[in-house]
Amino acid sequence: MFYKGFEHFIKVKFFLLYLLAYMQLVAAKSNPCFPIHTISFASLDSYLYHTDEEVELIYSTFPFINTQIKPYLNQCMNAQDITTLLKSLNDSVIKKGYLTTRFGIGKQDLSTGELKIKV
User: Fold this and answer.
1) Domains of the chain
2) C-alpha angle 65-75-41 in degrees, rounded to nearest 5
3) CA–CA distance, 62 with 60 (Å, rounded to integer)
4) Nearest partner of 117 among 32, 67, 46, judged by Cα
5) β-pairing, 75-77 with 34-36?
6) Other beta carbons within 10 Å of 93
7) pLDDT tens digit sequence for 20-41
8) pLDDT in tens, 82-113
9) pTM over the 0.85 mark
10) Any idea where the Polypeptide-transport-associated ShlB-type domain is (predicted)?
């Protein structure tokens, strides 16, 4: 019983993250792009602070992310590019058997040149 409730909580949590990101992207009057020089990853649980060990664990658990983010680095990314990247990452993580793990984004200022992705 607890497991099903927890699984539902996780699904709702990630749905809300996607919904928030989608609403922010759609709210833009045009389809601007932002030069993205860095794509970083952190655990959803460490929204404000993350450690180097945590980042290493993410990259070692999901080594495919390096390959998937490479084409997006030092590129001008728009809403569609971000959506495509997230879909690609989520499809890959599911194929690896991590059914409850999702990549998502929260509110952020892309003009800094960094795209922050939560796991």
Assistant:
1) 2-118 (3.10.20.310)
2) 30
3) 6
4) 46
5) antiparallel
6) 20
7) 666 666 655 557 899 999 999 9
8) 999 999 999 999 999 998 899 999 889 999 99
9) no
10) 66-119
